[in-house]
Design goal:
heterodimer, A: six-stranded mixed sheet, five-stranded antiparallel sheet, 20 strands, B: mainly alpha, MetI-like fold, globular
Chain lengths: ~350, ~260
């Protein structure tokens, strides 16, 4: 299974929901679409499923153009955000629906339903109705129903958003294991960056109907292509600067020279620094900035500190409290030094 | 305060149910006078059982109500579905106006225009030949379509679209999504629409009077003309039978509901 999307555009009247978007998803891949509301991620999913008619572009599934096919002829299934379980059917009726429509035999359907119930650990629930199940159980029924016809590609629209926090992180791991064992390609939509980072083989960050960046979670997190991506996936402190001929970065407002880990072409740039890559206190790192501690927020495992620099810029840092909160000796209003390694520098194009 | 409220409540119930109560009591009256009690008797029930005209009228009304309600349910479902799902289409405004007409027009106008239509049709194409049960059924159906459409459309508005999409996503062509998902979920609305149409038809005297012909008098028409000659307790007996049947039906329904829940 290879999904190849080229130049896909969807417009709702004057509103452009998808703006000539390109995307390729490979066999057995778990691809995550990450974006804020209105970024077009759900529209993209609906265009692949066939519920939205694109104005331009092509969607090829294993070389076949999906454009002329209505939703019920596409070998693609969707797991809906609201689950959309059929309330007047049993769990077994729901899971077997797709196969029944394709004319599978009773025996084949019964066997497949039993198999899917085992897969999502709902044996014994076949005759229940959706309203008799908990949210987590409904979520598993929805997953089983969308997987039962053995689709070539499964689309998941915020599959975990309706679950509470604890259940969500368990289900996340379960979903990934399931995807690995089945080898079905998944495209999963989410607005939760942690979900995207932990689950994805590759992820795409959507912005205004386009994919701002595509890559593995590490690639996108470590080397965001734009300021938007840097700030959307994780947090980032952004400082304007200029790359010098020797490859170092000059921060003119602060009068500081910064050493970066990688070569860069001279010119204006934005320097992005991840809060957790900054060290508070003088740790002997090559790059240093000094300022005043403005704020501190204790969050159990981590301590978030906000430092005000000489020019008034606020820099956020986040430290793991390895030795406990008692080891922190910093007073609000006191002077602090921030340090970081050259490799922690992220250079972004200016806006 | 609570005493005053209780008193108010009793007054309200009395206002609603006292007339029906009197009607039931006086159906067992022995005398001919409808307002003077002269001893208990079942004589009007016996008379009712032998009044072939009244029995025929009742059966005719039931038949007209059932057929017109069924016709209205069929057409109203399609119209309601079209209005709720098809977005903008050619003639949408005309359809909506046509469906709203029976709701806002006085029945006299509806009845009169139906009569004209049937007369003109007979002159032009020879059908319907004369007026009778068929024309009343058609007239009732066309009025009831408006009610069924309204109920169905209200039920469908904003509902079930994701379920229909889920069905189509699972290889159901649109007509199967309708048949397997939308239709079963619409059954309560359809039943409500059907019952509403049935009741409207059973109740109607105006439209029926205009569109009926000789030999096809519905129950309300017979009762109405009987009152002009002076009501006999026989009508009360008939009303009591109808009230009993309806009440029994409602009780059965609520029992079934309680068991299902």
């Amino acid at each position: 299974m290879t999904l190849q999307i080229t130049g896909l555009a969807v417009r709702y009247g004057p509103v452009t929901a998808l703006d000539r978007l390109d995307l390729t998803v490979a066999t057995g891949e778990l691809f995550v679409l990450l974006g804020g509301s209105g970024s077009g991620k759900t529209t993209l999913l609906r265009a692949i499923a066939g519920f939205v008619r694109p104005a331009e572009g092509r969607i090829l599934l294993d070389g076949t153009d999906l454009a002329p096919l209505p939703p019920h002829r596409r070998p693609v299934n969707t797991m809906f955000q609201s689950y959309a379980l059929f309330p007047h059917m049993t769990v077994a009726g729901n899971i077997g629906f797709g196969m029944r429509r394709r004319g599978a035999s009773r025996a084949a359907i019964a066997a497949r339903v039993a198999e899917m119930l085992t897969l999502v650990r709902l044996e014994g629930y076949a005759q229940r109705r959706p309203y008799q199940l908990s949210g987590g159980q409904q979520q598993r029924v929805a997953l089983a129903r969308s997987l039962a016809p053995n689709p070539r590609l499964l689309l998941l629209d915020e599959p975990l958003s309706a679950l509470d926090r604890g259940l969500r992180s368990d289900t996340r791991g379960e979903l990934v294991r399931l995807q690995r064992s089945l080898g079905t390609s998944f495209i999963l939509v989410t607005h939760d960056q942690e979900e995207a980072l932990t689950m994805a083989d590759r992820l795409g960050v959507m912005q205004d109907g386009r994919l701002a960046q595509i890559g593995t979670p590490a690639e996108v997190y470590e080397r965001p292509a734009t300021r938007f991506v840097a700030e959307f996936l994780g947090a980032a402190n952004i400082l304007p600067g200029t790359v010098q001929a020797d490859g170092s970065v000059d921060l003119p407002q602060l009068g500081v020279q910064v050493r970066t880990g990688r070569p860069a072409t001279p010119g204006r740039i934005l320097l992005a620094l991840r809060p957790e890559r900054l060290v508070v206190g003088d740790a002997g790192t090559p790059n240093r900035l000094s300022g005043v501690l403005a704020e501190q927020a204790y969050a159990g495992g981590t301590l978030t500190s906000t430092v005000r620099l000489a020019d008034g810029t606020l820099i956020r840092t986040s430290q793991a409290l390895r030795d406990g909160f008692g080891s922190v000796r910093l007073a609000i209003g006191g002077p602090v030094t921030l340090g970081w390694q050259p490799e922690a520098c992220i250079l972004l194009p200016p806006e | 305060m609570s005493r005053a409220l209780a008193g108010w409540l009793v007054a309200c119930y009395a206002f609603l149910y006292a007339p029906i109560g009197f009607l039931i009591v006086f159906s067992f009256n022995d005398g001919r006078m409808v307002t003077v009690w002269s001893g208990a008797s079942m004589r009007w029930y016996v008379a009712l059982a032998h009044d072939q005209a009244l029995i025929d009228a009742t059966l005719l009304s039931l038949r007209i109500a059932a057929v017109s309600a069924t016709l209205a349910a069929l057409v109203g479902t399609l119209a309601g579905y079209a209005l709720a799902r098809f977005g903008r289409f050619r003639g949408r405004g005309a359809l909506e106006a046509a469906l709203a007409a029976p709701l806002v027009l006085p029945e006299v106008i509806t009845g009169l225009s139906m009569l004209l239509l049937f007369v003109v049709l007979e002159q032009l194409v020879g059908w319907p030949a004369g007026r009778g049960a068929t024309t009343v059924t058609l007239a009732h159906a066309s009025v009831s379509v408006a009610y069924v459409t309204m109920v169905v459309r209200a039920r469908l508005a904003g509902s079930f679209t994701t379920l229909e999409e889920a069905a189509m996503d699972l290889y159901a062509p649109p007509w199967q999504a309708f048949a397997f998902i939308t239709l079963p979920l619409m059954v309560p609305a359809l039943a409500a629409g059907w019952l509403l149409s049935f009741t409207l038809s059973m109740d109607d005297v105006v439209v029926a009077s205009f569109t009926s012909g000789p030999g096809a008098s519905t129950l309300p028409m017979v009762v109405f003309s009987a009152t002009r000659l002076g009501v006999t307790p026989e009508i009360y007996a008939l009303a009591t039978v109808i009230v009993t049947v309806v009440a029994a039906g409602l009780c059965a329904l609520s029992l079934v509901r309680r068991h299902a829940a």
